[in-house]
Amino acid sequence: MLKKQHSKFEFECGTDEAGRGCLAGPVTAAAVILPRRFRNKIINDSKKLNAENRFHLRSVIEEKAVCFSVHHIYMEEIDRINILNASILAMHKCIEKLKNVPEFISVDGNRFKNFGNIPHECIIKGDGKYLNIAAASILAKTYRDAYMTQIHEEFPMYNWKQNKGYPTIEHREAIKKYGITKYHRKSFRLLPEQLELAI
User: Fold this and answer.
1) Which of 24, 122, 131, 192 is the most exposed place for a label (fewest CB within 10 A)?
2) 1 inside domain
């Protein structure tokens, strides 16, 4: 089982994002504060879980958490401020929306910006070390996957239901064939031969 959290503070929030490397769709972050006595043997980095487990654990996390929030930053904003800033902004927006103010923030990864005066720690592969970061990774992933499945109905030729906007061969071939949509990130290198892309 993962450790519950990084610090000794009662209200430590774990935060993580999903969709940073995608060609389409938002970057989605979540923030979670778990209760002091929270235990769960299955919760782990969302990438290590199958879809069925992720959706089951999402309801467990939402039911048991002291508080949680999820926030999307959409394509236009990603293109305007870049993906790193968009990822950090998504995490900040989540923390802002928490009903309890955290005393400490544990961040998955190695980049973050101060959130007010609240101390924070960046933890490489934190979603495989601490339950609160892993819980945030599960919420971010499941909410983003649900969004991509929804917009798949509008543009089924890109198969976002399956690839979730990641740069698979199939996704790149569809971009080559059909061009791009309002959901694509125009600042990203959507095709290796970018000049051939009709924007």
Assistant:
1) 192
2) no
169 and 101 in a single domain? The answer is no
- Structural domain range at position 131: 12-151
Q: Are residues 72 and 136 in the same domain?
A: yes
Supply 96's token pair: 């802002």
Strands (E), the chain: 12-18, 27-33, 67-73, 104-108, 120-123
Vertex 56: Cα angle to 145 and 97 (nearest 5): 60
Q: Determine whether the annotation assigns residue 108 to a binding site.
A: yes
Other CB atoms within a 10 A radius of the CB of residue 49 amount to 20
How far apart CA 114 and CA 194 sit, in angstroms, is 36
Ligand-binding annotation for 127, yes or no, is no
pLDDT at 193: 60
| 132 located within any domain | yes
pLDDT digits (tens, 9 = 90+) for 65-102: 999 999 999 999 999 999 999 999 999 999 999 999 99
Task: Residue 52: give its domain's CATH number.
Answer: 3.30.420.10
Nearest CA among 168, 147, 139, 16 for reference residue 75: 147
CB 69 within 8 A of CB 98: yes
User: What's the pLDDT at 142?
Assistant: 98
Q: Is 196 annotated as a binding residue?
A: no
Residue 5 lies in a domain: no
Residues of the chain with pLDDT under 70: 192-199
